[in-house]
Amino acid sequence: MAALGWFTRRRHLPTEASVLAGEASAEAARKSSVQAPPPPPAEPEFPVVGDERAAAFFDLDNTVMQGAALFHFGRGLYKRHFFRKRELARFAWQQAWFRLAGVEDPAHMEDVRSSALSIVKGHRVSELMTIGEEIYDEYMADRIWPGTRALAQAHLDAGQRVWLVTAAPVETATIIARRLGLTGALGTVAESVGGVYTGRLVGEPLHGPAKAEAVRALAAAEGLDLSRCAAYSDSSNDIPMLSIVGHPYAVNPDGRLRKHAREHGWRLRDYRTGRKAAKIGIPAAAGVGAVAGGTAAAVALHRRRR
């Protein structure tokens, strides 16, 4: 029995030929193995923590907030009897058009602003600021895009300043910026004398190229390096503003901006749950606003067809 065990062990001892075969097989396996590609280089940290010459500029309508701030402001003023159903019909149609089209038309937005200016004419700035705070809670707070809000917070956490840049009234924009904990806001300035609105603008609406000029002016005053700054917008109208910073982002972009961003290697972010729903879904309102708003939109559409 002992002899048999000795014989079995000898049969399992490696021979010179088996060692050669094993080494050759291992070498062939090593040469034929697929090498995993090296990991891609890590993107540089952004936003850069502690960079005091960097800042972020965010468009408001459909970038930070779903819909147009001016439309929501108009709904709040109607609730407070600032104007009649005829004007409400106008605002409702303008909101519906804005949501259906999904883009800003300068002539259309100018029409909206003219309506708003005629409504606030003769009212005190302080009165509208107080009402604006209430309207934010009623119609705007729940329409802030969480994804865009997180982007803004990332810049704040990095120690950078963050401004809204919008064609909405600067008072409305300032209220939203303060509520979101941002640095401040650039917006359209309505003329006031003795603290009372005159119904006219100072210059023109902060729209398109005017936004880029406002950002340039603020950057110069604040000592910012635009090549280290970021800008975010949904609208092709803001291509001038996006083009002057080193980190442009297309957020919830319209078709033209999406195409431009891809052609120029800009980053894209889309926080809409469904693009079509975001374009055509009219937000729900409470109480009389829901009934009156829906009815007014139909009335306005009927009038335009006559």
Automatic annotation (TrEMBL):
Indicate the transmembrane segments per the record: 280-301
> What keywords would UniProt list here?
Hydrolase, Magnesium, Membrane, Metal-binding, Transmembrane, Transmembrane helix
Question: CDD domains, alphabetically?
Answer: HAD_PGPPase (cd02612)
**Has the keyword Magnesium been applied to this entry?**
yes
- Asked whether the UniProt record includes Nucleotide-binding among its keywords, one would answer no
Q: Which GO terms describe its molecular function?
A: hydrolase activity; metal ion binding
Pfam families referenced in this protein's UniProt entry, alphabetically: HAD (PF12710)
Q: Which InterPro entries match?
A: HAD-like_SerB (IPR050582), HAD-like_sf (IPR036412), HAD_hydro_SerB1 (IPR006385), HAD_sf (IPR023214)
Tell me its family: Belongs to the HAD-like hydrolase superfamily. SerB family.
According to UniProt, the name of this protein is: HAD-superfamily hydrolase
